[in-house]
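Re: beginner question about structure tokens

> Can someone show what the tokenized structure looks like for a real chain? I only ever see the sequence side.

Sure, here's an example I had lying around. Input first:
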Amino acid sequence: MDGLLAEVTRSGVVESAHRGYLVMLNSDGSVFKSIGDIDTKIFPRSTVKSFQASAMVRAGLKLEPRLLALAASSHSGSAKHLEAIREILTLAGLDESALQCAFDRPLGDAERRAWGDAQPTRIAMNCSGKHAAMLLTCVINKWPIENYLDPNHPLQLAIKSEIENLAGEMITLTSADGCGAPLFLMTLIGLARAIRAITISTDEAHQSVMDASRTFPEMVAGKERLTTQMMQEVPGLYMKDGAEAVEVCTLQDGRTFVFKVSDGSLRPFRTLVHASLLEFGISTAFEPEKVMGGSEVIGTIRATIS
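And the corresponding structure tokens:
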């Protein structure tokens, strides 16, 4: 059901291959290109954070753009990120003990090295910005905070409804993401339609989240992260990655691409993002991934989507 997305070559020989699913939409929503069965259902993981944040804004969440971008983030865990999460919690009259996301160390490479042997914490977990915003949304609405991750909690039902409306399909299975929040199974094409819909929407809740994310891409991810780098380089681009190799990218005119790498590897991400943007006629600063033989470059990772 999947198709070939990228190949790893060594001395002209294909050593490894990454298969998966990809769909590209034109600005009018029609399918420009696809690989694999785009009706395949996937767990979109953190690529849905803009939808979750939009549901919270619709429910009364009010944050300055810098903090709203963090509410839709998979942050690196820098000091700047952690300080901003505490700002959100303070607005709710809470501290980090109220967070119910998983314990973890920072996601960013540099941030994790700086963390060293210190114990994992909830606030360092890359989804803690979203969780802090969820808590604030609950406080604003006088919803209980003790069970804010329950799939039947008013907040999570609002998020589910937001995703269904954007994707144009019903959620048939609810699981749990790595952070503990409800995770909704959906089709690849549904995810693409949803991210395109939120991009071209005139709904204030949608536009506030998307504008905040584009304005503060370092809050959505972090330094040296592909998501931040690409949003800084390509005007109007919104991009969000998810665990197990899911990616969404959308331009302000509605052109969109979404892919899922079947083996869950992030290795071909940079190559696939660059190649997909080229399909839309957008060239970016890109140095092909290097496959080394000792100190010599003897291969690369190449996309196979053209």
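Each token stands for a local structural state, so reading them left to right follows the chain. The domain at 3-303 is CATH 3.40.710 (Beta-lactamase).
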